[in-house]
Amino acid sequence: MGTVKVTFTLDEPTVARLQAAAERLARPKSEVVREAIQDFHERIGRLSERERRHLLRAFDDLVPRIPRRPLARVQKELEDLQRSRRAGGRRSAGTRGR
User: Fold this and answer.
1) Please, where are the H alpha helices in 6-90?
2) Predicted local distance difference test score (pLDDT) of residue 94
3) Radius of gyration of the chain (CA)
4) N or C: which end of the chain has fewer CB within 10 A?
5) Residues of the chain with pLDDT under 50
6) How many CA atoms lie within 13 A of 86 on its CB side?
């Protein structure tokens, strides 16, 4: 695999972490950066642990707010909605034909 030399500007704490990681792993800094970018690229589109916990908290907050109704009542409500949609929605008697 060919390599390309690039230049980045990093803050000092990031450079220190890169140096520490390279020393601890006994690998070149460029290899540490390549692996970090590969790992980051694989995680794009996935939820972070913080995002996952936030969504789970929202779910836990919202689920108890869902009104409890008997199944027959829910089915009747859905049937009424379907009938209403087939009949043209919410038009009142005075607005038909306009």
Assistant:
1) 12-25, 29-43, 49-62, 71-86
2) 61
3) 29
4) N
5) none
6) 6
What is the pTM (predicted TM-score) of this model? 0.50
Integer Cα distance of 71 and 73 in angstroms: 5
pLDDT at 53: 95
Q: Token pair of 52, please?
A: 């996952």
Burial environment of residue 1 by CB neighbours within 10 A (0 to 12, 13 to 18, 19 or more): exposed
- Relative orientation angle of helices 12-25 and 29-43, to the nearest 10 degrees: 100
Phi-psi region of 79 (alpha: psi -120 to 50; beta: other; left: phi over 0): alpha
Q: Which of 40, 32, 3 is nearest to 16 (CA)?
A: 32
3-state secondary structure string, 33-53?
HHHHHHHHHHHCCCCCHHHHH
Burial code (b: 16+ CB inside 10 Å, e: under 16) for 20-46 equals: ebbeeeeeeeeebbeeeeeeeeeeeee
Q: Which residues of 6-19 are buried (b: 16+ CB within 10 A; e: fewer)?
A: eeeeeeeeeeeebe
